Amino acid sequence: MFIKRMPKFAYHAPTSLSEAIALMEEYGPKKASLYAGGTDLFVAMKKRGYTPDALINLKSIEGLTGIDFDAQKGITIGGLATLGDIARSEIVKQHLPPLWDAVQVMASVQIRNLATIGGNLCSAWPSADTAPPLIALGASVKLHGAKGERTVLVENYFARAGKSVIEPDEILTQVTIPVPQLNSTGTYLKLMRRNAMDLSMVGVATLLVLDSDNTVCKDALIVLGAVAPTPVRALEAEKIIVNKAIDLDVAAQAGQIASDNVNPRTSIRASGEYRKEMVAVQVKRALLTSYARLQKS
Amino acid sequence: MEEIEIQLDVNDKKYQLKVAPWRTLVEVLRESLGLMGTKKSCCEGECGACTVILDGKSVVSCLLLAVDAQDKKITTIEGLSKGETLHPIQESFLKHGAVQCGFCTPGMVMSAKVFLDENEKPTLMEARQAIAGNLCRCTGYQHIINAVMDVPEKTAKK
Q1: What chain A residue is nearest to B57 in terms of C-alpha separation?
Q2: How far apart are CA B13 and CA B36, in angstroms?
Q3: Which of A20, A130, A135, B39 would you call most buried, defined as having the most Cβ atoms within 10 angstroms of its Cβ?
Q4: Whole-prediction pTM value?
Q5: Does pLDDT of A1 surpass 60?
Q6: Which overall architecture, per CATH, does domain B4-77 show?
Q7: A113 reaches B (C-beta below 8 A)
Q8: What ipTM did this prediction achieve?
Q9: Closest CB to A109 among B43, B58, B65
Q10: Could A196 and B23 be called an inter-chain contact, meaning their C-beta atoms sit closer than 8 Å?
Q11: Segment (H or E) for A89
């Protein structure tokens, strides 16, 4: 299929969420697809892996792209905010370091200017780079559907590889992140075969909360991507770093425990054994990087 | 399936046309507007040969529906040179031997343009990262990087 043209479809550009939802219900599941950036969807359509009868453009609905900071309500990112917008956002850079780290290493500049955070979450690939940071940050998503609105923690958003819990009539309108505590920071490290334009072999997001002296870790979240069908918390590793200062030994120990508790599969990008070993290395590095960031500030 | 009437603003010129919704911007630029400078290569957003500038941001035009490019300012490679006068980025590419077969070149130049508009004096790493979304099978990238780093300051914005 050298030419790779898009298959034919009926096109709709609703101007409200209710109009979009009504269209989805009218067509029925799998017959119509909502789209925003199209960077995942159109590739699948061009390869004829998915040929919906209709495409429903979400970009014609206003109010879904903003990135805002509210000291009480937290940081809100519209579902249709592009990865490029997020990378250029001072709010994200200052308050959400793991998410900022992640968008820097996703795809390319050109793709990031089209791709959306909502799309990254709804495509639900195991290697989705925004997922581990959002889970580490305690983020949740707002889903708007025929039956109304519901909120789901990003940690509970993934059902299995390639499938999130979103219903066919629902739209992910917003990502909400509680304002991170003082004396906290995090990192996202993406292990790739190349320096750019690659899916991750192992993704690690950390969020560390230190005490007021910035020495001992009060709380920690370590979230792994691409080593299981969905992003997973390294719960056992998190437990052993609480109440400790993070030096090389502690970080290495946490890394080893995280590695012991995952069973990645072999894929075209890396073998399961390699990923399992790299979890130990990357978790160690991510913890040391996060800790050093807090020492600097 | 119906065609949709759209207006495209390309290189400061407005075009009225009727397009089927499934046509991508790169196809419409090349086949309907005759602007062949933007290249079709992988058609899945991986190679960057189809890079154009949309409202000041670089995008891959193979994954953008033409109907989604309405009401936006589009710049293609044809929009950089003025008649026979090349843009300083193009001059730098020629000076450094950054063009072999030339197929990646329009995309590279568009990525460089957007990058240099924001960062006039890039470091080596910044220049390398700026073209991370553009593949070249001929040059090995070194001459392209040299060209990007040697564009005289204050001239990229033209």
Answers
A1: A113
A2: 16
A3: A130
A4: 0.96
A5: no
A6: Roll (3.10)
A7: yes
A8: 0.96
A9: B58
A10: no
A11: none
Any B CB within 8 A of A292 CB: no
How many whole angstroms from its chain centre is CA B64? Answer: 14
> Is the per-residue pLDDT at A209 higher than 90?
yes
Q: What angle do CA A106, A108, A109 make, to 5 degrees?
A: 110
Q: A43 and chain B: CB distance < 8 Å anywhere?
A: yes
B72 in A contact zone (CB under 8 Å) = no
The answer to whether A12 and A53 have CB atoms below 8 angstroms apart is no
Using an 8 Å CB-CB cutoff, list chain B residues near A53: none
Q: What confidence tens digit (pLDDT) does each residue in B72-122 have?
A: 999 999 999 998 999 999 999 999 999 999 999 999 999 999 999 999 899
Give the closest of B23, B48, B65 to A110, CB-based: B48
What is the third-level CATH fold of A67-177?
A: 3.30.465
Query: What is the fold, at CATH topology level, of the domain defined by B88-149?
Result: DNA polymerase; domain 1 (1.10.150)
Position A241 confidence tier, pLDDT thresholds 50, 70, 90: very high
Q: Pairing between strand A158-160 and A202-210?
A: unpaired
Given a contact cutoff of 8 angstroms between Cβ atoms, the answer to whether B22 and B69 are in contact is no
Mind telling me how many Å the CA of B69 is from chain A's nearest CA?
A: 11
Instruction: List pLDDT tens digits, range B122-139.
Output: 999 999 999 999 999 999
Q: Which of B45, B51, B68 sits opposite A39 (nearest CB)?
A: B45
Shortest Cα distance from A138 to chain B (angstroms)? 31
Residues of B in contact with A6 (CB under 8 A): 22-24, 65
CB atoms within 10 A of CB A68: 13
Establish if B48 touches chain A: CB-CB under 8 angstroms: yes
Is B123's Cβ below 8 Å from some Cβ in A? no
Class of A10-57 in CATH: alpha beta
Domain borders along chain A are: 10-57, 67-177, 184-296
> Taking Cα atoms as reference points, which of A33, A21, A196, A152 lies closest to residue B65?
A33
B118 touches chain A (CB under 8 A): no
**Helix residue ranges, H only, A9-146:** 17-27, 41-46, 83-88, 90-95, 97-104, 109-112, 117-123, 131-136
